[in-house]
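Schema walk-through. Below, the input block comes first and the output block second. Nothing else is stored per chain. Lengths vary across the set, and this one has 74 residues.
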Amino acid sequence: MRKERTLLVIGILVAILPYLGFYESTRKVLFILIGTSLIYLAYLFYLESKARLSKNENRIKSFIDNIGTGEENV
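--- output ---
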């Protein structure tokens, strides 16, 4: 939940940053920092979803492997 909350705060910052009265150069630097933090969060979400998918695939594969071919019951 921490990453989601951070994403919400970054979104709010992006929405209000043009109206805060910073100099143009300061605003550009802040937008660059916010952009790189968004890239980092997106990468963390990607790693998390990839780990979750591989965990689900391993569970499904082990279930299919445990079913067998049906020759044992003959």
